[in-house]
Amino acid sequence: MTNKTRCSWVPLNDPLYLDYHDREWGVPVRDDRKMFEMIVLEGAQAGLSWGTILRKRENFRKDFDGFEPIKVSHYGEKDVKRLLSDPGIIRNRVKISSAINNAKALLYLSREFGSFSSYLWSFIGGRPIINHWKRTSEIPAVTKESIALSKDLSARGFRFIGPTICYSHMQATGMVNDHLVTCFRYYELGGSSRR
Length: 195
Description:
Helix content: 40-55%
Strand order of the largest sheet: 1-2
Shape: globular
CATH superfamily: Hypothetical protein, domain 2
Radius of gyration: 17 Å
Order of helices and strands: HHHHHHHEHHEH
Structural class: mainly alpha
């Protein structure tokens, strides 16, 4: 597995990170539950390393009822206390409260657009943006699309959802192919064509 050329940001000595890069990062997602999971995890990651989130991910899935938005939207103060007491996740009241709030906002948004996924993909015309980066330093932290998405989500009641979190979410869920052109995943995920 390690003899393939990968994006330079991937720690080659971390099997969990390698697996995430090789099988998940940048793969187009159209499932609302998975989209919600990644919004929550990207928010939880703010100020921390993604490796920390990967190591706590299964605990997040367990504690947040598999990221089922309907269940999470019904969480109350008792659930917040339960989550804050679990060292297996990121115990930050603002991030936890935002996840619960965002589950409620997601449900309203899904009723309006048919699905959360349809709404998100509408910001990029329904198909992945294929970039052509040669170096990690070229990859932006935000784009005009992530700024527009962040503003619209905020206007619809989402919290802790800035343009950087939105762009990380877009990269993780394959709305954007930001694998380096030297990475084997770039071409597997449609990198041979230009947008």
